[in-house]
């Protein structure tokens, strides 16, 4: 069972689905924000759609950009697409 668990964890990590230690790379909320970001939504539009404040939307965008090692919203979407997160 342990070798199978390691193989699954390694494949998930390589695909961008999990970070080191098998943890998910993005939270469920960050994944929702990413989906809207990929559709070209602004922080204000993301906030309205998810019933959160624009500041909270901004924090989620910043966090997912850091996790994807992206310096722009477009780069974050491209990195997520490359990792199979979209």
TrEMBL record:
One of its GO terms (molecular function) is DNA binding. It comes from Actinomadura logoneensis. SUPFAM superfamilies: C-terminal effector domain of the bipartite response regulators (SSF46894). This is DNA-binding response regulator. SMART domains: HTH_LUXR (SM00421). InterPro entries: Sig_transdc_resp-reg_C-effctor (IPR016032), Tscrpt_reg_LuxR_C (IPR000792), WH-like_DNA-bd_sf (IPR036388). Transmembrane segments: none annotated. Keywords: DNA-binding, Transcription, Transcription regulation. The keyword Transcription regulation applies. The keyword Transcription regulation applies. GO terms for biological process: regulation of DNA-templated transcription. It holds the Pfam family GerE. Residues 19-84 form the HTH luxR-type domain.
């Amino acid at each position: 069972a342990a070798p199978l668990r390691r193989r699954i964890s390694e494949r998930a990590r390589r695909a961008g689905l999990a970070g080191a230690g098998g943890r998910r790379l993005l939270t469920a909320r960050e994944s929702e924000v990413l989906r809207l970001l990929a559709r070209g939504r602004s922080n204000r539009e993301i906030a309205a759609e998810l019933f959160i404040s624009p500041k909270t939307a901004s924090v989620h965008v910043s966090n997912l950009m850091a996790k994807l090692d992206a310096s722009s919203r477009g780069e974050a979407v491209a990195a997520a697409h490359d990792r199979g997160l979209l």
